[in-house]
């Protein structure tokens, strides 16, 4: 009884909650509830700062990507895939003869009671068009190093996904484009090629800005 009591008195007390690690007998302290260790807070802050930088790089890359995409699309429309017949068919299928960006701009102008001077060619439509390239670029920049397979094929997979989601699904559902079946095959081919170019250029510019050639593969944490 006395020996047990003396052993208890000789046992050193440790700060924290007094628990010991079962493996090495060292004291195991726990952070107070609701508080993160300082190292974790700094890591989270650094991670958040890196995300903002990647979003900005993605915005720049997307702007360059949509600029190059426009040149490729216009070349195919005027001198490549399209003929006079398919160009007329495309113009007839478009709502009001406008591309989706200018249709969106007109919807916004109608909502606020503003009448643009030229519905088919105006700064508002051009702004919407570039924003539709910059925002996906920001999204790409934020996900490329954080989500596996987003950068597959050096941006070609991302460009293909945008083509399907935007051109073939979202625009017809929103009324900014006619149903896909009303357009000639050349319009679909141009849209696909143009979006592949957008994805590739966006990835290339982002890689240059980030100093990386390929997106890193994220490893699963052991369970």
Largest sheet: 2 strands, antiparallel
Please bin the fraction of helical residues.
55-70%
Overall outline: globular
Provide mean pLDDT, rounded: 82
The portion of residues forming beta strands comes to under 5%
Distance, first to last CA: 45 Å
Model regions low in confidence, pLDDT < 50 over at least 5 residues = 1-22
Structural class computed from helices and strand pairing: mainly alpha
What is the H/E string? HEEHHHHHH
Quick one: how many beta strands? 2
For the largest sheet, list the strands in their spatial order.
Answer: 1-2
Describe it:
This protein has helices spanning 2-10, 38-79, 84-93, 100-112, 123-143, 156-174, 185-210; strands spanning 19-20, 27-28. A two-stranded antiparallel sheet has the order 1-2. The chain has a domain at 73-210. Helix 5 packs across helix 7 and helix 6 crosses helix 7. It has seven helices and two strands. With 223 residues, the protein is an all-alpha fold.
Which features does this protein show?
globular, two-stranded antiparallel sheet, 7 helices, 223 residues, mainly alpha
Helix-strand blueprint:
Blueprint: H1 2-10, E1 19-20, E2 27-28, H2 38-79, H3 84-93, H4 100-112, H5 123-143, H6 156-174, H7 185-210
Antiparallel strand pairs: 1-2
Summary, kept brief:
With 223 residues, the chain is mainly α. The chain contains seven helices and two strands, in the order αββαααααα.
């Amino acid at each position: 009884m006395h020996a047990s009591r003396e052993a208890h008195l000789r046992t050193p007390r440790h700060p924290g909650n007094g628990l010991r690690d079962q493996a090495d007998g060292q004291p195991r302290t726990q952070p107070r509830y609701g508080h993160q260790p300082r190292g974790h807070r700094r890591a989270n802050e650094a991670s958040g700062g890196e995300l903002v930088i990647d979003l900005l790089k993605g915005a720049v890359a997307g702007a360059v990507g949509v600029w190059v995409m426009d040149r490729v699309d216009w070349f195919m429309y005027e001198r490549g895939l399209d003929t006079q017949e398919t160009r007329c068919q495309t113009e007839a299928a478009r709502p009001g003869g406008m591309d989706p960006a200018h249709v969106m701009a007109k919807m916004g102008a109608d909502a606020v009671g503003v009448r643009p001077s030229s519905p088919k060619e105006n700064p508002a439509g051009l702004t919407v068009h570039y924003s539709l390239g910059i925002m996906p670029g920001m999204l790409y920049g934020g996900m490329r190093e954080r989500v596996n397979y987003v950068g597959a094929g050096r941006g070609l997979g991302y460009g293909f996904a945008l083509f399907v989601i935007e051109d073939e699904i979202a625009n017809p559902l929103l009324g900014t484009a006619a149903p896909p079946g009303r357009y000639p095959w050349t319009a679909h081919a141009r849209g696909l090629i143009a979006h592949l170019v957008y994805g590739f250029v966006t990835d290339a510019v982002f890689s240059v800005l980030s100093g990386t050639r390929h997106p890193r593969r994220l490893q699963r944490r052991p369970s």
